[in-house]
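Lecture 7 notes: from sequence to structure.

We start with a single chain of 126 residues. Read the sequence below before looking at the structure.
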Amino acid sequence: MFDSFRTIQLSAPCAHLMDRVGKRFAMRAAKQPPREQISLAEVLYALSDPARLDIVRGIAGEGEQACNQCLVDMPKSSLSHHFKVLREAGIIATRIEGTRHFNSLRTADLNSRFPGLLSAVLKARS
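Now the structure, written as tokens:
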């Protein structure tokens, strides 16, 4: 990793991370299950947490939101975890634009798999 002058040398796998003038590097796409792989057990698990339910209600009320627009008051790392659980359960879709992540509900996919579930959850008060 270091050369004889103790400067860092990028190994071959990391060489693609070097910044080049005028070149932008894309972030990885967020993992989201296809519609047919959305599981009821995972959806219900993801919606069982009050913070995640607040996130879903916020997105349902406001539409697509960036992660930093979420009105749930918690550390960034915890919020990131909750978005990941919701995304991997198939409840939200994440669109990456530069360094920002925009989240929206996968209403059509959820209604296709489990008709009426999302609207019932959003109407219910805890």
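The domain at 28-123 is CATH 1.10.10.10 (Arc Repressor Mutant, subunit A). Keep this in mind for problem set 3.
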